[in-house]
């Protein structure tokens, strides 16, 4: 094994760089340098399993050893994946099993330095020396641009069917689709078909504010994926993945330009947290 180190300076806060690294579409963008269409399946919590995958489901089975937001992310790679399934450890894999991939962020005067340290099999050294700086250059471009999408997640101890039903059926939506206890969702309509709409009424409990959250479905893959456009044209993708009998629900959405990115991220996450509470009760 050989350890390689790469670094790049980015004109953005470490919070912006962090989300440029790990928010779903951002991650898929900069890592496309290594493999077009690459993606992950994980809840991104420290100690959790993470799958690094190509579109055909081949890749690596790893663990998030450290996740210290805005400072350090450390992956430990243990085995191979084929067609979305973990493979037994062979002698060849045993030679690199436990290899680490680490990212450290430090900020000074508005400039964030990303330091990436990776353990690699020696014969791939020239490849990574060439391609890793290209991937970091793409990361820099993402982080120094306006935020295009935001990712929020939750992990649920429930069956995939139960999660799908409680996320999509109106009689369940009214019980969780609000970000705080002083709001509620008094009415929900949902026609879960491509080209059809949903309408969820969001209202403050004191009756002073109310609006309809509406969208039109672009893609519906039962128990797997939903894509819709909000009434203002912004795209939202919802994914349902399973690892170790737990459902990982991911929402990736385009932000609006009225509220801060942080406020929007927090609001959408609060609704997902509410969904988790309702589903697991």
Summarize this structure as a short list of keywords or feature phrases.
Alpha-D-Glucose-1,6-Bisphosphate, Chain A, domain 4, 2 domains, 26% helix, alpha+beta, globular, 7 helices, 7-stranded antiparallel sheet, 281 residues, 42% strand
Descriptive notes:
This protein is of the alpha+beta class. The protein has 2 domains: 2-143, Alpha-D-Glucose-1,6-Bisphosphate, Chain A, domain 4 (2-Layer Sandwich); 150-280, START domain (Alpha-D-Glucose-1,6-Bisphosphate, Chain A, domain 4, 2-Layer Sandwich). Helix content is 26%, strand content 42%. It contains 7 helices and 15 strands. It has helices at residues 14-22, 24-30, 91-94, 125-143, 160-168, 170-173, 261-280, and strands at 2-10, 39-41, 49-53, 59-68, 72-82, 85-86, 99-108, 111-120, 150-156, 183-190, 197-204, 210-221, 225-230, 235-243, 246-253. The strands form 2 sheets. Strands 1, 2, 3, 4, 5, 6, 7 and 8 form an 8-stranded antiparallel beta sheet that branches. It has a 7-stranded antiparallel beta sheet with strand order 9-15-14-13-12-11-10. A hairpin with a 2-residue loop joins strand 7 (99-108) and strand 8. Helix 1 (14-22) packs across helix 4. It is globular. The termini are far apart.
């Amino acid at each position: 094994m050989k350890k390689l180190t790469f670094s790049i300076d980015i004109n953005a806060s470490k919070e912006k760089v962090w989300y440029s690294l790990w928010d779903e579409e951002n991650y898929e963008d900069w890592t496309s340098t290594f493999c077009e269409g690459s993606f992950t399946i994980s809840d991104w919590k420290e100690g959790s399993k993470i799958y690094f995958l190509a579109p055909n489901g081949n890749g690596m089975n790893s663990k998030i050893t450290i996740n210290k937001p805005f400072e350090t992310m450390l992956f430990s790679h243990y085995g191979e994946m084929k067609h979305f399934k973990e493979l037994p450890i062979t002698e060849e894999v045993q030679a690199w099993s436990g290899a680490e991939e680490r990212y450290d962020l430090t900020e000074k005067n508005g400039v964030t330095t990303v330091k990436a340290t990776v353990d690699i099999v020696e014969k791939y050294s020239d490849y990574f020396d060439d391609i890793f700086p290209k991937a970091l250059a793409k990361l820099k471009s993402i982080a120094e641009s306006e935020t295009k999408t935001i990712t929020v997640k939750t992990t649920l101890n429930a069956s995939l069917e139960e999660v799908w039903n409680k996320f999509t059926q109106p009689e369940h939506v009214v019980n969780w689709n609000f970000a705080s206890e002083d709001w509620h969702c008094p009415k929900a309509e949902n026609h879960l078909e491509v080209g059809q709409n949903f309408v969820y009424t969001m209202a403050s409990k004191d009756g002073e504010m109310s609006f309809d959250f509406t969208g039109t479905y672009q893609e519906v893959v039962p128990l797997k994926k939903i894509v819709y456009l909000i009434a203002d044209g912004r795209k939202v993708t919802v994914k349902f993945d399973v690892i170790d009998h737990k459902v990982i629900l991911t929402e990736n959405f385009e932000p609006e330009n009225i509220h801060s990115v942080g406020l929007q991220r927090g609001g959408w996450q609060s609704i997902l947290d509410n969904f988790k509470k309702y589903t697991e009760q």
